[in-house]
């Protein structure tokens, strides 16, 4: 079963003095692209967290966030009064010099400025460290469940589209003999319209055979059929097949394009266009596969 790179996971843990919330969002990417937002109090565990996220998620554009909320009266977060005073005086000076009005809500402005809030970093206790990593892993579990569900939807879509292309490939057989006969007839009609034209019939037959062989699409149809089967086989091998499925879809497209360029038949051209439409939907979604 394939997995999608798209997913979301969230986990919450309440300690006696803190509430820890971990949120992880994942989108498609060619490799692991991890962006983290970790509070200063947990910064010492950042490398462990990044290693765990990378080990379990493998690929994707990952947005990882930890939020901490104090539950007790005592808090390590304090307002940095000297910095606030300095900002306050600077803003008043700017207002006077430039002639712009002072803010109506000072606290809303001042508390958002850099270093207005200071956090006292204390050493993490083992119990809190363990709770943090458990919360991270629960969020990762939820995200992976999301990826599996999305992967099931993608697999159903791919099965449908590959089946549609295989059915269209079988439809080409109806027009194959008719296509060759029309080509022969068109060439003979053109020759018959030329007055006083004599030609070596044996040489003509040889050239006709050579020309028909160049227009033969049986080899392309056989390769296309093999690529379709290989796509399904690869998809059923499990996760981590996204790049391989992308390569196979490119090969499928190459055979469809060759089939279209050699078909020289209106109905076959229509079938090729429908094949390309089905394949385009595969290519769009295969980018999301792990």
From TrEMBL:
Cofactors that this protein relies on: a divalent metal cation
Endoribonuclease YicC-like C-terminal domain sequence ranges: 179-289
Endoribonuclease YicC-like N-terminal domain span: 2-155
Recorded coiled-coil stretches: none
Pfam families xref list: YicC-like_C (PF08340), YicC-like_N (PF03755)
InterPro entries xrefs: YicC-like_C, YicC-like_N, YicC/YloC-like
Keywords: Endonuclease, Hydrolase, Nuclease
Molecular-function GO terms, alphabetical: hydrolase activity; RNA endonuclease activity
Record-stated family: Belongs to the YicC/YloC family.
Listed name of the protein: YicC family protein
């Amino acid at each position: 079963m394939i997995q999608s790179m798209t997913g979301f996971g969230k986990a919450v843990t309440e300690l006696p003095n803190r509430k820890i919330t971990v949120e992880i969002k994942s989108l498609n990417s060619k490799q692991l692209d991890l962006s983290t937002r970790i509070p200063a109090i947990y910064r010492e565990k950042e490398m462990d967290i990044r290693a765990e996220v990378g080990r379990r998620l493998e690929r994707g554009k990952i947005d990882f966030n930890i939020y901490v909320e104090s539950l007790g009266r005592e808090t390590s977060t304090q307002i940095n009064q000297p910095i606030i005073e300095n900002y306050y005086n600077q803003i008043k000076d700017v207002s006077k010099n430039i002639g712009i009005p002072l803010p109506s809500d000072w606290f809303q402005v001042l508390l958002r400025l850099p270093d207005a809030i200071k956090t006292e970093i204390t050493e993490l206790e083992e119990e809190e460290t363990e709770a943090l990593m458990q919360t991270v892993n629960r969020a990762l579990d939820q995200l992976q469940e999301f990826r599996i569900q999305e992967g099931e939807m993608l697999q159903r879509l791919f099965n449908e589209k590959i089946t549609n292309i295989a059915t269209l490939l079988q439809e080409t057989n109806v027009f194959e003999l008719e296509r060759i006969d029309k080509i022969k007839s068109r060439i003979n009609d053109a020759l018959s319209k030329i007055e006083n034209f004599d030609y070596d019939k044996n040489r003509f037959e040889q050239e006709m055979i050579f020309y028909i062989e160049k227009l033969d699409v049986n080899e392309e149809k056989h390769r296309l059929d093999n690529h379709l089967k290989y796509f399904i086989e690869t998809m059923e091998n499990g996760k981590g097949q996204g790049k391989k499925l992308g390569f196979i879809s490119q090969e499928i497209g190459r055979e469809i394009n060759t089939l279209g360029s050699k078909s020289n038949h209106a109905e076959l051209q229509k079938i090729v266009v429908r094949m390309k439409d089905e394949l385009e939907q595969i290519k769009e979604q295969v980018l999301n596969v792990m």
